[in-house]
Amino acid sequence: MNAQSDNGTTGITFTVRPSDLGAILIDQLHLQVTSFSPFAEVLADYVSGSSTMSDTARQLAKDTVFATVAGVLARPDLRLELLVGGGMAPLGSLRAYASKAAGNMLVGVAPGDGEWDIRLFDTPRSCADWFVRQTGTNTQGGEPNHLAPPCTLSTLVAAFHTIDMFRRAAYQDMLAYKRTVDPMITLEEFRSSAQAAIHSQDIRWLLPSLLVLNPTLGASIGTMGNDGLEQAVKRGFLIGAKRAGGADTVLLFGEAGTHMGSEFLRSWVSSCGFSLDVVGPDGPRTLQRGYIASTALANHWFRFDTKDGVLQVNHQPLSLEQYAQKMGDVLLSGTVVERQAGTAGAFVKQRQTILSGAVSQEKTTSADAAPAKTPKFCPGCGTPVKPGARFCASCGRPL
Amino acid sequence: MRQSTMTVSERAELLARHTVAHARQGDLLAVVDRDPEHAPPEVLQELKALGEEIGGLWEQYLAALPIVAVSRSPLSGDLLEYAIDIVGVDGLWWNYNQPLRPLQQLPADFVGLAGALHLGAPLEKTPFEVRPGPEVPYVVPRLLAAPGVCAVFSQVQIGPHVGYAIAYFAEHPEQVANRINTWGTDFYEVVDSQGTLTWSRDGDNAVLDRDADLKPWMEAGKLLWIQPGDTSMTIRSDTQACPFLALKGSRMDSVLFDGMRTEDEPDAFAQEAMEAALGQPVPTDPVPDELWKLVMPTNNNAGGDNDERSV
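Predict the joint structure of the above. Result:
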């Protein structure tokens, strides 16, 4: 156990071992844990009184502030989940929980290797500020919005792949010790590499990072329209051209593609997917979801809305201050809806979307079988790992 | 989007009837004004009938106005659909002193709609003054300088003329206090914090508060545009393909009346005078009083004929 005060806006932090959770929450504090709780997975098989209490755990159980925090985490009715990775960052997650019963307080949870960091926030805004400092870049804003709304998922996919193709062309140039003035790709290359990128789950590239960090988007990929390339041309990401003396169409990078391609080539720091879920009278539901890609120039904010059954993307390039404001607004939007922690028992969450061909298949857990789980990935290489695996099948890292 | 429910010839007939009725109304009001106490009953009766006729024509005109997708918010993605007379500037919508416009349902992040008009031929004869802006679009720096405010340029065909809509949007429109006069008028409407529709006015020197050097605003992400003819109204931000950067035309406000175009120059004169006095370009903020004192005479008797001399 480790309790300390922060000088910042974040209040108090605790460090707790998952192996101590059963003894503290169930044996000492006698808390009931819902499937919405971050502890649900760890405590799924816990038998009351089955673990030995360490001194540090005993001390933690006596801490009144921790008892309040544990109460929120055991039966939360609001959750903001951020999957972080991509750019220069390995895959990780940050979550914040709230309970109507605990008022404005939010509790942040960052699961680590063998220890969890738990952080207390007085208000949704202070929680958002902290999250944004962890995931954003300190930019002043003022970047053109090359993907102004309304934007479809297919447009976003084409634009992201254009950015990746620009980076790829630059890397290939570097490897060959040359500088291509106007790099070009064929239509077929663009399409086939987009398919490969979608299935790769390699978060070093922007398009795969979008899908890995927003697992629920996978379901929409199979049903998205095929106007992405057309839109990418229309918005200045790509320019259609004919090769001199040839009849086939090739694609050149347009102003928007070059601008954002250079931006992400030079300074993509990290991305994160977010999902705000609340437990209402009818059970859990997702209120908002989105994706943020942070570079040295902007925090690119993408919010996903469904309008008339079609996924719409709202993109805004934000300064750090604007990013904090937006994230605060997201959290506040969850606090003003009706919430009811007790209905979380019936929670069924998508575990992981596995993409197969053009159509995705979703695998879900039943409420009785297991609590909600976040998709798991190797922290070393980002490859998805099988449930129960002890080593990553790709890089061999112990999990 | 809504098509006009009136044909061009029906509209022309309505406007002709309105012109006749309005002129007759003016004549009779002049009679009544001469001696309000003893106005002849038949004049009052005719005035009443004319009022009803004009009111009816206004209703018909408003009901027939098409609702056009003029712009789109780059913040929310919502379309700005605006009731506007696109048949010509002879419509009552364009009457500068008495614009006839319906209440509009506008996007929540809408701040204002300014415009410019590049005149084509023929120029309509109007019995009222029309001020459709300069010939080339511009931005208002003081508005764009506010955090979260951005503008979108688009093109709207107004009869034989090419109109440029300049729509402003803001993340928090309630924080944008000093807005811009609505296209073709000398005022703007705004819903205050209590939810009441009210109106206000950008100052007389509004023309000084403009910038036609658009590229830096685009590069700063503050100005976006929609390709003319793009029915999907896709917002773009790249500069190389932007047709609005290459437009040529007068930056002075056009004043149209009776088929003639003149330019509204006083503000330009004031700008030149101030720049001469200061030896540098005037700031884009509202002109402070001390600056006016530099260039304006302090003598209360100043003005009138410049050649006049007191003995």
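Chain B touches chain A through 24 residues (CB under 8 Å).
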